[in-house]
Automatic annotation (TrEMBL):
Domain Response regulatory, residue spans: 2-119
Catalytic activity: ATP + protein L-histidine = ADP + protein N-phospho-L-histidine
InterPro entries referenced in this protein's UniProt entry, alphabetically: BphY/WalK/GraS-like, CheY-like_superfamily, HATPase_C_sf, HATPase_dom, His_kinase_dom, HisK_dim/P_dom, HisK_dim/P_sf, Sig_transdc_His_kin-like_C
Name listed for the protein in its UniProt record: histidine kinase
């Protein structure tokens, strides 16, 4: 049996094709009524299964046209479509001479059985070839009614969907605003807390430093070597704590205040930062390569802080290198334009890379490379405030690359 399947959905055609081919039929396809007419004329199938709503020419018009051809008008024609307005379509289909109107979707075996049953019944009644074609006027009247109802139905459906989408959208927006303001206020609290804690801790720490200094100066002779060693450790620890408090203050400064959005010449900023480093460490020879024309939109003051830390790190961790190279260049990260600071310094083991963006996390010893471990944490906060991201990649002994977007 040769079956013509007419449907604008390629998938639906495929499902029907597999089903009927599996039962040994030869299947030909068309994507709309107009193509259906052409294929029907060329192939003269034994059965047509057609969708209703299709572009160019829909199923009703297809059947109506088909009935005008003597050699085609007796072919059993089964509508297989998802119904919107129910009986009215089935009525028009019957009036046009369709064998049946089946509602999509059906299980493949169900569809096959049903088609078989319909064909057998049709054969028995032997009325198909005699059905005269419907008059054009009559067809147009019924057809326009069906189409109008269907359109109304569709418009109503779309309006409802639209309304519920708008409602959902409004609700989501409201929730985002609410959550954002909760988050902002929690962040503000946290920042204020860390600011005041580090501020308030300074006074007792100053006492600790002052008195241990007095102890060292006035009573050193009365302490033995071990006592003096303990005292020195206390003093070192309190200095370290003062440094950490400074770092926390610096960190909270990087997220305070309004964020400016201006055009920033990152190339110029990078050269400025590198110049400062070179002046502060004239003994270091670093081959610095800054790409021209790097531009970003953001807060110039904060972006300078980012470069100070990144170029500063590259500078610091290339110290042992005979020929230190630090490069700052534009790049791409997940389809967004990004910037990178790369060095050929000591690098590190990538297993701990994520931790480095938290305060006080370091991979190198103080005596080897001094630092507080706050730079990358500050960089991350500033970049996040700009809506960007940052990552660090490294290999032991082969250097590091920090990439960021803003
Ligand atoms: N370019 C780099 N090469 C090798 N290791 C790096 C590099 N940048 C960062 N790191 C590792 O990440 C750690 C954290 O960096 P971060 O800038 O936060 O702190 P720091 O430089 O040690 O101290 P601070 O920046 O507060 O002076 C460093 O101690 C180092 O172990
Ligand atoms: Mg640093």
């Amino acid at each position: 049996m040769k079956v013509l399947v007419v449907d604008d959905s390629r998938n639906d055609r495929k499902v029907i094709r597999y089903n009927f081919e599996w039962h040994g039929c030869h299947v030909v396809e068309a994507a709309n009524g107009k193509q259906g007419l052409e294929v029907a004329a060329a192939e003269v199938p034994d059965l047509i299964i057609s969708d209703c709503l299709m572009p160019v020419m829909d199923g009703f018009r297809f059947l109506h046209e088909l009935k005008k051809f003597k050699e085609l008008n007796a072919i059993p024609f089964i509508f297989y479509s998802a119904i919107y307005t129910g009986s009215r379509e089935a009525e028009l289909a019957a009036a046009l001479g369709a064998t049946a109107f089946l509602e999509k979707p059906m299980r493949p075996d169900e569809l096959w059985d049903e088609v078989g049953r319909l064909l057998a019944a049709e054969l028995a009644s032997e009325r198909e070839a005699q059905a005269p074609p419907m008059h054009e006027e009559e067809f147009l009247r019924d057809y326009s009614q069906v189409v109008a109802t269907r359109l109304e139905e569709k418009v109503r459906e779309l309006t409802e969907e639209n309304e519920s989408l708008l409602r959902l959208n409004g609700e989501l927006e409201r929730r985002v605003v609410e959550r954002t303001s909760q988050l902002e206020s929690a962040n503000r609290d946290l920042e204020m807390f860390s600011y005041s804690v580090s501020h308030d801790l300074r006074a007792p720490l100053r006492h600790l430093e002052g008195f241990s200094q007095a102890l060292a100066e006035e009573y050193a002779a009365k302490l033995n070597t071990i006592g003096n060693d303990y005292l020195e450790r206390i003093r070192r620890s309190s200095r370290r704590m003062a440094d950490m408090l400074d770092a926390i203050l610096e960190l909270s400064r990087s997220v305070r205040g309004k964020l400016a959005r201006e055009d920033v010449d990152l190339s110029a900023l990078a050269r400025e930062v590198a110049g400062q480093l070179a002046r502060s460490q004239p003994e270091r020879k670093v081959d610095l390569r800054v790409a021209e024309g790097m531009a970003a939109r953001g807060d110039a003051r904060l972006l300078k802080v980012v470069l100070e830390h990144l170029v500063g790190n590259a500078w610091k961790f290339t110290q042992p290198q005979e020929h230190a190279v630090v490069e700052i260049f534009p790049t791409e990260w997940e389809g967004h334009s990004a910037f990178a600071v790369r060095d050929n310094g000591v690098g590190f083991d990538m297993a701990y890379a994520e931790k480095l963006f938290s305060p006080f996390q370091r991979m190198h010893g103080q005596d080897e490379f001094p630092g507080r471990g706050i730079g990358l944490a500050i960089v991350k906060r500033i970049v996040s405030r700009h809506g960007g991201k940052v990552k660090i990649e490294a290999e032991v002994g082969r250097g590091s690359t920090v990439t960021f977007t803003v």
